[in-house]
Amino acid sequence: MLTKHEKELIAQIWDKMIPVACDIGSESLLRYYYRMMTTFPGTKTYFAHLDIRPRSPHLLSHGKKIVLAIAECSKDISSIMVTLAPLQTLHAYQLRIDPCNFKLLSHCILVTLAAHMPDEFTPVAHAAMDKYLSAFAAVLAEKYR
Which residues contact 126 (CB under 8 A, 6 or more apart)? Predict the structure, then answer.
């Protein structure tokens, strides 16, 4: 799915994102929540207990977890199934997240990366990251089948 060059590029990008994981993650989640609530107003009930303000402790904490999981998988993309196995189970059986949400979140992450890395996020980097995040979302959705 990904060439050796694309895998190296993805790993380099996520290495750079680790120090700003809270920022990238919380901004991506904020984009995601606002898009979900605008497109599907009924989903507001899922997030009623969360503090969904820019830079809120919840968004910073959860956003960091997401970015660190994506960065961890980028180190060895060939073992993504093994690395994500615990998150597959958590999201499918405990949190019961609709798997279509993983694709929407991956798009929000792409937009956030492009905004934070205008010079480095070339068309080649964008295409590679899109493939990688699509695979990440597909792996998270595996337990739903």
Answer: 110, 114
Residue 144 has pLDDT above 80, yes or no: no
pLDDT in tens, 15-40: 999 999 999 999 999 998 888 878 87
Of 74, 59, 57, nearest in space to 24 by CA: 59
Contact residues for 2 (Cβ-Cβ < 8 A; gap 6+): 10, 77, 128, 131, 132, 135
Buried b (16+ CB within 10 A) or exposed e, 98-127: ebebbbbbbbbbbebbeeebeeebeeebee
- Of the chain, the end-to-end C-alpha distance in Å amounts to 21
- Quote the CA–CA distance of 43 and 128 in Å, as a whole number: 31
How far from chain centre, in Å, is Cα 107? 8
- At 67-109, the pLDDT tens digits run 999 999 999 999 999 999 999 998 888 888 888 888 989 999 9
DSSP H helices in 21-141: 21-39, 57-75, 80-89, 100-116, 123-140
